[in-house]
Amino acid sequence: MRKIYVLDTTLRDGEQSPGVSLTAQEKVEIALQLERLGIDRIEAGFPITSKGEIASIQAVAKVIKQATLVAFSRSKEQDIDAAREALKGAEDACLHIFLATSPIHREYKLKMSKEKVLDTLEAAIQYGRKYFSKIEFSAEDASRTEVEFLCQVTERAIKAGATIVNLPDTVGFATPDMFGQMFKTIRENVTGIERIQLSTHCHDDLGMATANTLAAIANGVEQFEGTINGIGERAGNTAVEEVALALETRSDVYQAKTSMVLHEVYQTSRMVSKLTGMLVPGNKAIVGANAFAHESGIHQDGMLKNRATYEIITPATIGVTSSKLVLGKHSGRHAFKERLIDMGYHLDEEQLNTAFAKFKELADRKKEIVTEDIRALIDERAKEGPVPFQLDQLHISFGNHSIPTASVRLLTEQGDVMEDCAIGGGTIDAVYRAIEKATGFSAELEDYQIHSVTQGKDALGEVHVILHQGDMSSRGRGVSTDIIEASAKAYVEAINRLVVRQREPERDGNISLH
Ligand SMILES: CC(=O)SCCNC(=O)CCNC(=O)[C@H](O)C(C)(C)COP(=O)(O)OP(=O)(O)OC[C@H]1O[C@@H](n2cnc3c(N)ncnc32)[C@H](O)[C@@H]1OP(=O)(O)O
Ligand SMILES: CC(C)C(=O)C(=O)O
């Protein structure tokens, strides 16, 4: 397997993400994690940016022992001097000089002719070589540069003393075929190419950064550059973790590998997200929250039978404990049953079918069903059976300038319909009054408690009530994604218990709480 070097530029190009600015301490923390991740070269910053940037790189230089520390620099002596200052304490240092080479950058940004570009990069590299044995030269906007000129640029950089030549796709314009071909041409036409390492650095403007990086690797580059989670200027850089895992998973195609400690990938991603404030989208490859989560019944069934049906990487590879079978609207019986067994429930086929139907009903109203939701569902199901009253329909009307009104429709054991409506001091008061009128049963509400079973706006609400009537009292519990419905269910359940006790006083006793 060919070794591919990784230059991580989270602390430089990653920090160029709009709104991101890392303190020295944060840079140190991330750099140490990058070292644990087995990154070969850590680009810690762009020293000429500010005094604070130099101090941050110096702080990183003090702690980094294994990786090569890289500092970025324009083709200017003042930038190189700032880089010298920043890297003076580094165990192993590399100066990274860049200059744009494409027609548009030459004409409008740099206002330099081709000759001037060649002379400028040569002078800068020669100046850098006085202080650094390792020099990377980047031809900014290489993918939009005339390929013959890019050959001249690369050759001049090698002659001047560069040890790595990086050809970036600065604005994410390249396509994989075109980009691969560019490296092939460079390898075949540049004198002295065997003396240096070729590198690539891609941006994700068209979502092709990883594909372009892999095309470059397939065409012989020895180093790729990227950032953790793909953060960076505009749409970001190549995500280091994506390329590393692509090489690992498709070694049959690329025959190349990084030295990255892959089980540190997830931890690194979390840290970078936390410290930069750049959230990782749920569907992000490798490190997104859904990368190892399965919600669809057919996929879950496949996973339970053989995980390779729907996973090409094991979560443990990147340091995630396990895959997740998320229960939701699209889930099927296999996954539901598996979760019940994990929770210690053993239902027969009929019970499972009833519980599954309830689960689907809930899933229509709630995005993700968690263990506590299922427990609430099963406990609810356990108390089903013929009851004196069953809540069938509930309507409420509420406005901050109107009187709360509720109407309810209940079904009796015999199938009779009992309907009524009421107003109240609040919505729940109105609902409870309507239930009392419909059932003809009135009791004193001694206690009312509500809490959320799970987290989030769509969480199940659980209501507990205690009712008193004469010397009898009873409890009721109701669960629903809607707290008014949960409240009504709890009230009806408590009334049912009172009714049953009144019918069978000798069995239930008069004053016990259930
Ligand atoms: C592809 C990349 O990611 S490039 C890196 C981008 N990152 C950053 O720019 C972040 C840090 N930058 C900064 O703090 C500032 O831009 C500094 C300190 C570098 C320069 O600031 P200023 O001196 O105020 O210049 P400003 O940023 O406005 O303009 C850039 C100048 O550098 C020149 N320049 C751009 N690239 C290079 C280069 N590789 N080599 C030499 N000169 C360059 C531009 O032509 C322009 O020169 P001009 O002033 O003669 O027109
Ligand atoms: C100059 C290189 C390294 C770069 O940051 C880019 O092209 O985006």
State the domain count. 3
Bound molecules: acetyl coenzyme *A, 3-methyl-2-oxobutanoic acid
On the 0 to 100 scale, the average pLDDT is: 93
Helix-residue proportion? 40-55%
Q: What is the rounded Rg?
A: 33 Å
Count the DSSP helices: 18
The main pleated sheet reads as: 8 strands, parallel, barrel
**Uncertain runs with pLDDT below 50, 5 residues or more?**
506-514
Q: Bin the strand percentage.
A: 15-25%
The N- and C-terminal alpha carbons lie at a distance of 69 Å
- Main sheet: strand order: 2-3-4-5-6-7-8-9
CATH class label of the largest domain: Alpha Beta
CATH domain fold name of the largest domain: TIM Barrel
Overall spatial form: elongated
- Number of E strands: 18
Structural class: alpha/beta
CATH superfamily of the largest domain: Aldolase class I
> What is the level-2 CATH architecture name of the largest domain?
Alpha-Beta Barrel
Outline the structure in words.
This is 2-isopropylmalate synthase. The chain has 18 helices and 18 strands. The protein has 514 residues and is α/β, with parallel strands linked by helices. It has 3 domains: 275 residues, Aldolase class I (TIM Barrel, Alpha-Beta Barrel); 90 residues, no CATH class; 120 residues, Alpha-isopropylmalate synthase LeuA, regulatory domain (Double Stranded RNA Binding Domain), CATH 3.30.160. The protein has an 8-stranded parallel barrel, surrounded by 7 helices. It has a 3-stranded antiparallel beta sheet with strand order 13-14-15. A 3-stranded antiparallel beta sheet has the order 16-17-18. Strand 14 and strand 15 form a beta hairpin. Bound molecules: acetyl coenzyme *A (ACO) and 3-methyl-2-oxobutanoic acid. Acetyl coenzyme *A binds next to strand 5 and helix 4.
